[in-house]
Automatic annotation (TrEMBL):
InterPro entries: AAA+_ATPase, ABC1_TM_dom, ABC1_TM_sf, ABC_transporter-like_ATP-bd, ABC_transporter-like_CS, ABC_transptr_CydD, P-loop_NTPase, Type_1_exporter. NCBIfam families: CydD. Gene3D superfamilies: ABC transporter type 1, transmembrane domain (1.20.1560.10), P-loop containing nucleotide triphosphate hydrolases (3.40.50.300). It comes from Corallococcus sicarius. Residues 19-296 form the ABC transmembrane type-1 domain. This is Thiol reductant ABC exporter subunit CydD. Pfam families: ABC_membrane (PF00664), ABC_tran (PF00005). SMART domains: AAA.
Length: 569
């Protein structure tokens, strides 16, 4: 379905606001015809009959009332249209955010954050013009010219026929010029998304750019991207101005031709003065909504271009669909992979192939091997971020695909390679895992991961703002805080992906001791690491080579003496 049709369907979903906005716009057009008829009658009477001013009083009062009523209706129509736009945009914001959450990290890792942000913010804002101006104007442009042609034809058939021939040329030229503008609109939107994505990357990487002395160069890059965006925007505006010129020319020539024919016929006596005056007053009312539609046409194309990307995200297939009657999450955390292969869409090779593994309740298993053999993919599969292309995953004998995702994820705590922290306090970031936890419990967990002394030195303690993505903390402190948050969740299954990669050896040893104490014997652990020290947490080590369909198992103590197998690849 074309983007504009889907946008129309979104508007119709808010039936009350949609009908109110369109009805008021249509009634405003009717008032324009009535207002012209009253004015024509008043002028003809004043010119031909020359009555006393008192006799014209009721007609003048009626005309003034129509002017005021039309102004009020125009204002009300705009308010209702903006209300409709606000409701549709709010609904789209919710749908888009929910879809991105449902797609999960497996999808967003392959996208540029700046582009997604531009789509979810500026992209949706581009739709405001479509719902508040373009859509109502299309209704007015469809009804008012037709009403004017009928009204004129009833009074004077020849003039009605002339207007019926002239009016269609306005949308014809609008469509022809619009085809030229569409490609420019698409280029403008691409440049905007690219610029937004690059700018966000530069802001987030500014400390690194400063360290390597490349921040000045990025100013030049952003300057060039800004110039390209400005150039494409000016190209769109040039076409828009050309469109306005052509539409004005068509409307002016048509009105002039009508005026000449009416003048000739008026002199010859084949048309009455009042009728001729009415036709001349109604002709601009016929072309006014068409010209206004032409002026808004480019805003509609910009909205359609933005909507195409929005709908592409909304139509992105989910990795899994919720079952109609999902199974209850088992209490025992026995996890089994049976001949699991995972091949992302569009990838020529699988990231994991023929993988088999059984993890018993309370067991601690480490996954090691070179980068790219699928260790993190195993965790993604367990978290529901990806779906197996072949094989299945069982939890205590129940297929993972049959479990409700939200309930399952509550049983899993996860520390990713790049943990995320929100721009709020340290306490708030921890309470995401356990909203009701007391400060004493938070401090106990923080001490176990060697963050107790760090918090004690902070003037605001747990109320210390972390900054965007936790940038006020060092890399090692962020890793320890992520561990604390995962352990605070107290979930029966713990997934750790390179949890100590940014810690020095002394801190790593102390943190691992704390994690070991908090794990106890009842929690199940699946650990991904390149470093040998975290293997002390494991009862069993599984080596992934990326070649063998089945993975051999080793004891952790044996692998601790085989550093090349677990060193950085």
């Amino acid at each position: 379905m074309r983007p504009e049709r889907r946008l129309g369907a979104l508007a119709r979903a808010h039936r009350g606001a949609f009908l109110a906005a369109l009805s008021v716009s249509a009634v405003t057009g009717v008032f324009a015809v009535v207002q012209a008829a009253v004015l024509a009658h008043l002028l003809a009477r004043a010119f031909l009959e020359r009555p006393e001013w008192e006799a014209l009083g009721p007609g003048v009062g009626a005309f003034a009332a129509l002017v005021v009523a039309r102004a009020v209706l125009t204002w009300a129509g705009r308010r209702l249209s903006h209300h409709l736009a606000a409701r549709v945009k709010a609904a789209l914001h919710g749908e888009l955010h929910a879809k991105l959450l449902a797609l999960g990290p497996a999808f967003t890792r392959g996208e540029r954050s700046g582009e997604l942000i531009a789509t979810a913010t500026e992209g949706i804002e581009q739709l405001d013009a479509f719902f508040s101006r373009v859509l109502p104007q299309r209704v007015v442009a469809g009804l008012v010219p037709l009403g004017v042609i009928v009204a004129v034809a009833l009074k004077d058939g020849a003039s009605g026929a002339l207007l019926a021939v002239a009016a269609p040329w306005v949308p014809v030229f609008m469509i022809l010029i619009g085809k030229q503008a569409q490609a420019r609109n698409e280029r403008q939107w691409v440049e905007l998304r690219r610029m937004a994505a690059h700018f966000l990357d530069v802001i987030q990487g500014l400390p690194t750019l400063k360290l390597v002395g490349r921040s000045r160069y990025q100013l030049e890059v952003i300057g060039r991207m800004t110039e390209r965006f400005a150039s494409t925007t000016l190209g769109v505006l040039r076409v828009a101005f050309l469109s306005a010129l052509v539409l004005e020319l068509v409307a002016t020539l048509s009105t002039a031709l009508l005026a000449v024919t009416l003048g000739v016929r008026l002199v010859s006596g084949t048309v009455g003065f009042e009728v001729a005056l009415l036709v001349l007053l109604l002709a601009p009312e016929l072309f006014a909504p068409l010209r206004a539609l032409g002026a808004q046409h480019h805003a509609g194309m910009a909205a359609a271009t933005a909507a195409e990307r929005i709908f592409a995200l909304l139509d992105e297939p989910l990795t899994r669909a919720e079952r109609a009657a999902p199974r209850a999450v088992p209490s025992r955390m026995q996890v089994r992979f049976e001949d699991v292969t995972c091949q992302p869409p569009g990838s020529p090779v699988p990231t994991l192939e023929g993988f088999e593994l059984t993890v018993s309740p309370g067991e601690r298993v480490a996954l090691v091997g070179p980068s790219g053999v699928g260790k993190s993919t195993v965790l993604d599969l367990l978290l529901g971020f990806r779906e197996p292309s072949r094989g299945r995953i069982l939890v205590d004998g129940v297929p993972l695909a049959a479990l409700p995702l939200e309930a399952w994820r509550k049983q899993v705590a996860w520390v990713s390679q790049c943990p995320y922290f929100f721009d709020t306090t340290l306490r708030d970031n921890l309470l995401l895992a356990q909203p009701g936890a007391a400060d004493a419990e938070l401090m106990r967990i923080l001490r176990e991961v060697e963050l107790g002394p760090v918090i004690a030195r902070l003037p605001q303690g747990l109320d210390t703002p972390l900054g965007e993505r936790g940038l006020r903390l060092s890399g090692g402190q962020r890793q320890r805080l992520a561990l604390a948050r995962a352990l605070l969740q107290d979930a029966p299954l713990l997934l750790l992906d390179e949890p100590t990669s940014q810690l020095d050896d002394v801190t790593e040893a102390a943190v691992l001791q704390g994690v070991k104490r908090l794990l106890g014997r009842e929690k199940t652990l699946l650990l991904v690491t390149h470093r040998p020290a975290p293997l002390r947490l494991a009862d069993r080590v599984v080596v992934l080579s990326g070649r063998a369909p089945r993975t051999p198992a080793h004891t952790a103590s044996a692998l601790l003496h085989r550093a090349p197998l677990v060193g950085h690849s």
